[in-house]
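Late entry, written up from scratch paper. The run itself happened at the end of the previous shift, but nothing got recorded in the book at the time, so transcribing now.
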Amino acid sequence: MSSTIWSVDDHLEDILGAIRPLDPIELQLPDAQGCVLVEDVTVQVALPPFDNSSMDGYAVRTADVSGATEEFPVVLTVIGDVAAGGGGLPTVGPGQAARIMTGAPLPPGAEAVVPVEWTDGGTGGGAATTMRPAGEAPEGASGEVRVHRPVEAGAHVRTRGSDVQAGDLALEEGTVLGPPQIGLLAAIGRGSVRVRPRPRVVVLSTGSELIQPGERLGEGQIYDSNSFALCAAARDAGALSYRVGAVADDAETLRATIEDQLIRADLLVTTGGVSVGAYDVVKEALSSVGDEDVPGSGIDFRKLAMQPGKPQGFGSIGHEHTPLLALPGNPVSSYVSFELFVRPAIRALMGLKDVHRPKVRAALKADKALSSPSGKRQFLRGAYDPESGTVSPVGGSGSHLIAALAHADCLIVVPESDTSVEPGAEMEVVLIG
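Output as recorded:
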């Protein structure tokens, strides 16, 4: 156990200095969601790849309909249907029109599309309200159509390359692939991309007093909330997370469980058992974990100048030097520690340039001054109001107050040098909501 009191910043710097982004792999689009691109993606084919109609209607030459009005409609000869995906396009000549569906290519000779609502739909009656499918109304592909309004060249036509041109940069390296980005990649014909995979994070909670939600509480037992909260937080950070049920306070059992999990972990997170109590099995199990087999591995247990979350552990384990972060067991301590240390580590494994939560400055809104221990950086749960630029504490400072955490959307940072903060003081706020 290190006797040095570490600062929050130095502990985080030590963690991030040891984290290396995961090696890139080629993934199919469905598997690449949430991953970070490691290459610039350029457009190979213009989007859309051809001029196409943005409306159901009639493809026309603009000169033929320039004088069209409700009172004096222009009558055009309908020469055929143009459907999306169809081939064998008819050529539209003088006095002619082709019935066209949304997304269908603009046929040769046509310069614009007249929406069906601006015509009689080929019925010989008044203005049409909709265009019946070709299969239901094959007669609509021939005969005549009355056009009630003129159109300009290019009207209701999506021109080739109006979205992106061939050779354009579609997505740049470092982009996180969400649904819109996956859609763009598919639209330009990319079936797979080179990315850094989502990190696999294994979360283990320790404590013989822990039982799983849904079971009946016995005397002296509590529900295991940490592993659920931290697994959810890891997913929220971009990882694939795996929760291991609470491990009893037995060092050999814990060590064996951790070693079993190494095969599927890019990062291990334990919660509980890192303090100075007689049953702090994480320290007992891991204090010498790297000494026998792998030079350079091992876990360093530290005291940090922070509240909550004073006891922390960090190091690596196994032949792959898998990073392990050992967090305190108190629910708020573990979650605050996750936000400050584990989340940035996950984002670093993903290869993201900015691994930190956004920070803002806000005026403290409180009934009385807040006290804070000297020499420690305190992180209070808070509710941030962006409209007024204020932040209000939620709940007290106790590290067991998990109900307050569920109603907080930020952490209020009280510097090490401040022992009292007056209402109205400007505070640093870490947004976690």
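The longest strand covers residues 74-82.
(Scratch paper discarded after transcription.)
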